[in-house]
Amino acid sequence: MDELSEKLSSLLSDPSGMEKIKAMAQSLMGGEEQTAPEPAPDIDPVALTRILGMLKSGGGDDHRIRLLKALKPNLSPERQPRVDKAIKILKLLELAPLLKEAGITEL
Question: Which residue of 4, 12, 24, 62 sits 20 to 30 Å from the alpha carbon of 88, by its own alpha carbon?
């Protein structure tokens, strides 16, 4: 799981990877055609649309996230940030199969 979260973090923190995602999002959402490069031909636009929809909606909270949110007020202030980090990792893990399906990353 650490390896997967590291790969996702590196993809999302890599400026060129984020520029690719941003350019594809702009082209799908009708952004400026002049500044946005065309998406790579091997990226599945349907999967990319699903990723963007999930990012836009914030995704649903599954039972694990609801449990963590319920436990958070009962934890010490030092441990509460760990819950937030765990929730972010869980949400990234939901995106991993969609990123792979879209051809953005090879996880």
Answer: 24
